[in-house]
């Protein structure tokens, strides 16, 4: 699929602002890195290294999130489509021992496994974890982490389970309630338009009972709404 070179460049600014901007950072790094060219990745590496992360949470809680960003931007995810059930069971055990199985949490183990294993392999890891622990890996992440790093890890898990459902939820969240998050709406529709927007639209319809186009037309007025609805109609 084509790589939207503007996306990594647009990600450089949020690294210098406060924690409320972490959601677009998470979204971009968790879903686009594998599509970028090496030049784009170099731009993001520079941005990540300069990221200070000062916000309402202070500096220290953001450090694990910064490490996650650095790991994601390396683009080191395994591209092998096969599944090793034995390795999946071992990774599930490692995740359990790094979190619920000990006092304190070893964030580096979660980082290593969630960032480097293929999506197919991670699905097997998640299944093995649930069989072993009796609950999902998302529940474990919620118990063991908080703030930006929790959001980052959960975003990876959700993308592994279904990237189109992840984006459908992000689109719905951008329009639900009072007001519209125009930046999120524009970013997702434009950036995914030549990748998987058709699949995202189908997931949106199934999850929320209305088409994405109808949501946009009802939520966005004027030229912007017309333009986004037109893009979403293809």
Automatic annotation (TrEMBL):
GO molecular function: calcium ion binding; calcium-dependent phospholipid binding; phosphatidylserine binding
Superkingdom field: Eukaryota
Gene Ontology CC annotations of this record: cytoplasm; nucleus; plasma membrane; vesicle membrane
Keyword entries, A-Z: Annexin, Calcium, Calcium/phospholipid-binding, Repeat
GO terms, biological process: endosome transport via multivesicular body sorting pathway
Keyword Calcium among UniProt keywords: yes
Protein family per UniProt: Belongs to the annexin family.
Notes on the domains: A pair of annexin repeats may form one binding site for calcium and phospholipid.
Protein name: Annexin
Organism of derivation: Aedes albopictus (Asian tiger mosquito)
Lineage of origin: Eukaryota, Metazoa, Ecdysozoa, Arthropoda, Hexapoda
């Amino acid at each position: 699929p084509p790589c939207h070179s503007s996306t990594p460049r647009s990600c450089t600014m949020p690294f210098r602002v406060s924690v409320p901007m972490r959601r677009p950072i998470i979204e971009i790094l968790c879903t686009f890195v594998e599509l970028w060219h090496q030049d784009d990745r170099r731009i993001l590496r520079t941005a990540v290294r300069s990221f200070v992360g000062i916000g309402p949470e202070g500096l220290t809680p953001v450090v694990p999130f910064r490490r996650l960003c650095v790991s994601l931007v390396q683009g080191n995810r395994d591209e092998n489509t096969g599944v090793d059930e034995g390795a999946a069971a071992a990774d599930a055990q490692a995740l359990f021992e790094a979190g619920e199985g000990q006092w304190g949490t070893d964030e580096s183990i979660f980082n290593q496994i969630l960032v480097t294993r293929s999506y197919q392999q991670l699905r097997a890891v998640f299944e093995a974890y649930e069989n072993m622990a009796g609950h999902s890996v998302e529940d474990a992440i919620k118990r063991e982490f908080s703030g930006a790093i929790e959001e980052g890890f959960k975003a990876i898990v959700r993308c592994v389970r279904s990237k189109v459902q992840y984006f459908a939820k992000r689109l719905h969240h951008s329009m639900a309630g009072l007001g519209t998050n125009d930046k999120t709406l524009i970013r997702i529709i434009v950036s995914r338009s030549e990748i998987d927007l058709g699949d995202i639209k189908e997931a949106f319809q199934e999850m929320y009972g209305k088409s994405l186009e109808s949501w946009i037309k009802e939520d966005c007025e004027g030229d912007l709404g017309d333009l986004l609805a037109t893009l979403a109609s293809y």
